[in-house]
Amino acid sequence: xxxxxAETNLFSPLALGGLSLPNRIAMPPMANNKxxxxxxxxxxxxxxxxxxxxxxxxxxxxxxxxTPAGRLNLNQLGIHExxxxxxxxxxxxxxxxxxxxxxxxxxHAGGRTTLQAAGTQPEGPSDGIQVxxxxxxxxxxxxxxxxxxxxxxxxxxxxxxxxxxAVELHGAHGYLLNQFYSxxxxxxxxxxxxxxxxxxxxxxxxxxxxxxALGPGYPLLYRLGGDDLLPGGLNAGDAAYxxxxxxxxxxxxxxxSGGLGGSGPATDGGAPPQEGYFGYLGQAVKAVVNVxxxxxxxxxTPQVADRMVRDAVADVVGVGRALLADxxxxxxAAEELGAV
Length: 340
Prior knowledge:
Residues 1-5 have low confidence and may be disordered. The protein has helices at residues 43-52, 85-96, 115-118, 142-162, 176-181, 196-214, 236-249, 279-286, 302-310, 321-325, 329-336, and strands at residues 14-16, 19-21, 25-27, 58-65, 77-78, 102-107, 123-124, 138-139, 166-171, 220-227, 253-258, 293-295, 316-318. Helix 1 runs parallel beside helix 2, helix 6 (196-214) runs parallel beside helix 7 and helix 7 crosses helix 8 (279-286). The protein has a single domain (14-336), classed as Alpha-Beta Barrel (TIM Barrel), CATH 3.20.20.70. It is α/β, with parallel strands linked by helices. The strands form 3 sheets. Strands 3-4-6-9-10-11-12-13 form an 8-stranded parallel beta barrel, surrounded by 6 helices. Strands 1-2 form a two-stranded antiparallel ribbon.
């Protein structure tokens, strides 16, 4: 099958702020937990990204914690202090040398972390919440929230100085920003809780602070947990509500994934779910925003990825586990789809 130049497809280029993506295939952020105990980049991390870079349109480096209290795992990548910057710069330069644009995801684990990993009681929107963990969280005060806004902004500045082409805020998979938006974990009675607008207030403030730190023209992405995959949690309607507000606050691309329930739906009998299972979120969000929308969700074959772009389900397709299993996935996709 040969592509028609007039039709947008998986191998059409895409402008993303100041970045030019050569195609629509993205390596989504996937944790390796191969950093040092201070969160610094190791040779093993660099080798991992170089091994998987061939033929991609975008690499989003795995989540890096913005404060020690937001660390999920002991060997998670960090971006919480100036000492992390030289290693991150080495990683960014290595990816840049492949010709593939890069972003790095910055995060706070919130109530999903543990005392062992964070060195303190887990922090969350409300006292006592437990998010896919056995330890109850401490509710954050408004003074805490001000400090966290500043921490996200400083982490973004470090990412930019290190040489990454974009920054992504992690608001999915049950981490802090997702916890604030979800009615299952945000039980606050102040201006940051209750209504949908109030629950979204802190994520929007983090976006605004991060945008100010990065300045105009530098791409800012937001990974939105569009469906908690749990009764009473966030759903596609909540994703469609949040996305325009995130864009207005300064986001250049919405990256859609799961919420509190994780990165994908539960399956019966161990069978893999249908490819592109978050496509319904892409359709809901693309109808209400005018920025690129990235969709992940168990994409395994180039044909499904290409069809998602052609059918306007996604502007960018995140290929995760399939790419881990086959580092040549993007090059093979180009061959199978006649893009070479």
